[in-house]
């Protein structure tokens, strides 16, 4: 099948990084891998936003600009066998794990490409075996937390030394699924890690209008 979606041209990566700051527990190669994923996500999303404004992409487009470091820094700490799920603004985590940008762009155009062969739209990506990204396959806010607790329960029952990581937004702390998932994981002492990205908005609604206790999160 010929590729008819737009190509992305990346700016050159910096090549003049001389040394790793000694206080950071990362090698130069690790830092470059993280930077590459963040830079790629930023460039990709700039292109995506332009295509959306031109009316070439239908459906909702959510951008993670400014949140790239949270995704990459967190996912970089996963080890073999760990699983994770992402939400709308964690594109850089996919790239860090090796998801190909051309496949992600193809999804936005509904093309038959891996990993899900056109069955999902841009937001939802899962491939347990290739990338360790677990499927939750619905857009209901925080539904990924109980799903992640389920994977974490499997790790515990199998005595497997792995964790399940879920990203979530501050707006997605309101639904019952969020509390059910956290409570289940806590009471059973499951290896579930939840990263809540506090960007002060639930979509376009200020979180202060969404929850009376929001000031405590900041
Ligand atoms: C149960 C449920 N209610 C409402 C929605 C609609 N919805 C999708 S994302 C969102 C806000 C998400 O806010 P947050 O988690 O902070 O993510 P951010 O927009 O900051 O990335 C809402 C209300 C939904 N998907 N599921
Ligand atoms: Mg938010």
Structure characterization notes:
With 218 residues, this protein is mostly helical. It has a single domain (21-210), classed as Rossmann fold (3-Layer(aba) Sandwich), CATH 3.40.50. It has helices at residues 28-53, 68-75, 91-96, 101-108, 128-131, 144-157, 176-187, 207-210, and strands at residues 83-85, 164-169, 192-197, 201-202, 205-206. It is globular, with a radius of gyration of 18 Å. The model has no long low-confidence stretch (mean pLDDT 87). Magnesium ion is lined by residues 169-171, 199, 201-202.
Range of strand content: 5-15%
CATH topology: Rossmann fold
- In the CATH scheme, the class would be Alpha Beta
Global mean pLDDT: 87
Query: Structural class, from helix and strand content?
Result: mainly alpha
Spatial order of the strands in the main sheet?
1-2-3
Shape: globular
CATH homology-level superfamily:
Thiamin diphosphate (ThDP)-binding fold, Pyr/PP domains
- Weakly predicted, low-confidence segments: none
* Rg (CA only): 18 Å
Query: N-to-C SSE series?
Result: HHEHHHHEHEEEH
Bound molecules: thiamine diphosphate, magnesium ion
> How many structural domains can be distinguished in the coordinates?
1
Distance between the termini: 48 Å
* Helix content estimate: 25-40%
Q: Specify the biggest β-sheet.
A: 3 strands, parallel
